[in-house]
């Protein structure tokens, strides 16, 4: 209620002066516009998650139809990851130039079209190209909807709302696993991709009709846009028509270089290292845990179920709680603690594998910590770290670094396994260095903030 009265006071005073929309968005309570933005961005995140499981459950059927060997799976999986890395960085930068909504539409349309085209691939090379282009769309959507959501969220709940939006992704993974299982039981594998392509196409229509562009973006990049007035009627219906609308934002900066200006190099580099650790460990958990479980007497279907559904549920609850924990204890404190705990659970994974129950609990703990709390928390942190002019660029390049971690970490574990001769204690002791690097990176960010090197930007998270 206090925030509501503050906004009403600003509206009354706007009749005799400027109306600071940045302050209004920071102090306003969560209203219908914020709910609409959150639902539509969450819908895209959910569909991003549903596609994640599609290629895994259909891979063997695709190999049989195209006459390929299991050795072709690596490039097929990696092509989408590489596309996602490129898409996150590219679309993040473009969204700071052309708008969050417009680039979100392009990204969603891309993964809609190429998800459906996966069912039509007639050769290995065609499948690689399609999965790469699909990855660009999947990777490109996230920085757009994360930036847009954070820019409508009130400052007091920004971390919570950003974290909640990301919970749609693991929920989509769980939902996709169930829907894909049903489609495979009642139709061919092609139906998985045709259905998976139709849903984001419908989401494109909803986004085009009902999702507004970011007000903060418009004030920084297009201050004369008529869309500002249309959105303002939802934000402040009683605003006098002659009020002068302004935004107390930093001046526009070049997206490509702004990540390293004004002392931001000390923020950007450790942020990227933490993203690589968070996303890399998430990929490692989901790729290698079924093999670890199977190697210790659990059947492969049961191992996949534990990691897929159990890990999805764990990451869902972890992501849901990340924002609230960060609001209560501080972003850097929670993230550093999460990475340190993940260092412990990763280092002990090889030892826990000797006993079924501790092994399963360790795998699920890693999912909660890495795929849940750290991933959602890092996205919330990155969204608040940069000003509006380079926010999507900052989130996009950080996610690109995370996607690179997704490519590197499973390959690193595979190389260690070949070198050592087994997937056991020594491998995971070495892999535990990754979340330790993530923890040290976050602690360095916190140290920078305490020394005043971030000029108040970290406090926005």
Give the key terms:
2 strands; 3 domains; 461 residues; Growth Hormone, Chain: A; two-stranded parallel sheet; disordered C terminus; globular; mainly alpha; 20 helices; 1% strand
Instruction: Give the overall shape.
Output: globular
| Relevant CATH superfamily of the largest domain | MFS general substrate transporter like domains
Strand content: under 5%
The name CATH uses for the topology of the largest domain is Growth Hormone, Chain: A
Q: Provide the helix percentage.
A: over 70%
Number of strands: 2
Unreliable stretches (pLDDT < 50, length at least 5) are 453-461
N-to-C series of helices and strands: HEHHHHHHHHHHEHHHHHHHHH
For the termini, the CA-CA separation is: 22 Å
* Structural class determined from secondary elements: mainly alpha
- Global mean pLDDT: 83
Order of strands in the sheet with the most strands? Answer: 1-2
Specify the CATH class of the largest domain. Answer: Mainly Alpha
In the CATH classification, which architecture of the largest domain applies? Up-down Bundle
**Radius of gyration, taken over Cα atoms and rounded to an integer in Å:** 22 Å
Question: What is the number of domains?
Answer: 3
Helical run tally: 20
